[in-house]
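Reviewers of the previous submission asked for a worked example of the structure-prediction workflow described in the proposal, so we include one complete record here. The input consisted solely of the amino acid sequence. No template or homolog information was supplied to the procedure at any stage.
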Amino acid sequence: MELRSEFRDGTFEIDGTRVHYMEAGDAEQETFVFVHGNRDHCHTWDFLLESFDKAGFSLPHVVALDLRGHGDSGWVGRERGYRHEDFVLDVVGLLRHLGKDRVTLVAHSLGGSMAVVFAGALPEKIKRLVIIESAGPYGRTERETPELFGRWTRDDGSDTILTYYATVAQAADAICRRFPLIPNRVAMHMARHGTRRTPNGLMWKYDPRARNPSYSSLSEAQVQAFIERIDCPTLLVFGADSGYKESPRYNRVAHFPNKTLVEIPGAGHHVQHEKPDELAAVLMPFLNNHG
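From that input alone, the workflow returned the following structure tokens.
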């Protein structure tokens, strides 16, 4: 399947980097922004949107964003990194580009961690918040931060071992080996949109430096302070088989002031790929309410 024909490409520039997105619907109406996870891209939402269609559910204006260094967005230079704070600027730039003061934000994994920082820093800009498989960025200790920062400043990506694939099917197989709960047809779709052709074969579109741990320097106490400032209705969604409850970050769930917590049976980390119909059933009433 493909994004519906009414979706159209758009771009804007921030910090000298071109940021890509796809949108559908009436840009003058309420906007729902969807943000992918690490090393992913805007087409991660295609199957969820397909499930919305099957249920006869539509949103007035949908925007699926490619964060910097991902999908069809540009890569940043060596002097810049891929911190959650940097990704926040991508969403700020998107809202400015669209002329929007307030949106609903739906975000997965890395995107969800960024969304926590965004909604805590700028709570007036978020009407509703859906966070899938995340509860904010890793909290860093004071001693971790210098080493992480040094790693980023030394690494220009030249030492990264790149993987090439002869076919889309081979790239899809790599996705399935890493995430066995993702159906093959979904992996094929993600590989098709997530790779580009080079003289050596297909390679992933994302910047290899995105594999490095973020050097975001927020402490655990600071992350919780962001969470406690989120005043909009917040839907937290986790896959029952993702193991997220074993994460030390799961304890942060208690700090969200206005939350609903939902667990999707049979889903792992990529809920929107593994159980799109079930995720849609949870999201539709939430996105329809809290006007």
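The beta strands are 8-14, 17-25, 31-35, 61-65, 103-108, 126-132, 195-198, 201-204, 234-239, 259-264. We consider this example representative of the routine output the project will generate in years two and three.
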